[in-house]
């Protein structure tokens, strides 16, 4: 192997698909079993294929467009290589992979990525590794049954759909957990990375998932919660505006005043005066 970071014992196989396979089936181009060091990295702006990776052991970092993901032991990665992407080892890693195509692959990819991102946990799933290894064994033996390999690729996509549907419910729980964290720590110095770290999700993926479920970015949700809390305190307490600003997580009263006015069209003082007039 001449690729940087690909260690001895790694294997790479190729296949030339028939015209029928190209027109009607899912079909592999290449595949292999790689053992890599933390110096391994693949970066492309465009590659006219899709990619399955099963991480047997180790850890990898994946970048797709503007998102960043982490895959560790027994994770499965599904990448659309037509878009800018990068994947690299964070430690010594072993993984199995195939590059493939098929007319419906992009539709599957877009659907799965929208729900789950590009990294899937294979906990309690043996079908996906089994299908992938069967395809790689065909490539290794140079005896690819194109109909069978197409069925295996389709089976992998079906299993990823099942995982995605399960993970959708899990992600709802993750968002609820993040909201509880925000509402419990809004007065502290917290940011996207702190919230994402609390729920063990990469910041980019977490932000996208959070917005999908709430229609707000995590930062917007935090600011809204701080402002709503400030409104309540302005109305119901005798705290000074400076005390309220600090209590609600704003590091100075000027920033608090600007943010409050942007959200309400009132300065904090005018809001308090207005609400007390209404109260009386």
From TrEMBL:
Q: Which GO terms describe its molecular function?
A: DNA-binding transcription factor activity; sequence-specific DNA binding
Top-level taxon? Bacteria
Q: Where is the HTH araC/xylS-type domain?
A: 176-274
Keyword Transcription regulation in the entry? The reply is yes
Q: Does the keyword Transcription regulation apply?
A: yes
One protein family per Pfam: HTH_18
Going by the UniProt record, its keywords in alphabetical order are: DNA-binding, Transcription, Transcription regulation
Q: Which InterPro entries does the entry link to?
A: AraC-bd (IPR003313), Homeodomain-like_sf (IPR009057), HTH-like (IPR037923), HTH_AraC (IPR018060), HTH_AraC-typ_CS (IPR018062), Tscrpt_reg_AraC-type_HTH (IPR020449)
This protein is called AraC family transcriptional regulator
Which organism does this record belong to?
Answer: Neobacillus vireti LMG 21834
């Amino acid at each position: 192997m001449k690729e940087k970071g690909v260690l001895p014992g790694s294997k790479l196989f190729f296949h030339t698909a028939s015209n029928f396979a190209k027109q009607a089936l899912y079909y592999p181009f290449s595949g292999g079993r790689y053992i890599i060091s933390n110096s391994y990295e693949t970066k492309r702006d465009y590659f006219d294929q899709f990619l399955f990776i099963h991480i047997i052991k180790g850890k990898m970092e994946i970048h797709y467009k503007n998102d960043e993901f982490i895959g560790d032991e027994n994770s499965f990665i599904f990448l659309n290589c037509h878009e800018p992407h990068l994947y690299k080892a964070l430690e010594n890693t072993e993984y199995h992979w195939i590059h493939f195509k098929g007319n419906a692959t992009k539709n599957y990819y877009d659907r799965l990525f929208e729900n789950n991102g590009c990294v899937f946990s294979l906990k309690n799933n043996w079908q996906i590794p089994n299908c992938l290894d069967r395809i790689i064994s065909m490539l290794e033996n140079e005896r690819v049954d194109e109909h069978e390999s197409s069925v295996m690729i389709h089976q992998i996509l079906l299993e990823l759909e099942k995982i995605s549907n399960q993970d959708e419910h899990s992600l709802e729980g993750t968002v609820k957990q993040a909201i509880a964290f925000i509402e419990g720590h809004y007065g502290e110095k917290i940011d996207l990375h702190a919230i994402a770290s609390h729920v063990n999700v990469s910041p980019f993926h977490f932000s996208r998932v959070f917005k999908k479920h709430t229609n707000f970015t995590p930062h917007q949700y935090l600011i809204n919660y701080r402002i709503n809390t400030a409104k309540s305190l302005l109305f119901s307490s005798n705290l000074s505006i400076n005390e309220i600003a600090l209590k609600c997580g704003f590091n100075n009263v000027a920033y608090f005043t600007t943010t409050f006015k942007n959200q309400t069209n009132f300065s904090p003082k005018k809001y308090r005066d207005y609400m007390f007039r209404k109260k009386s």
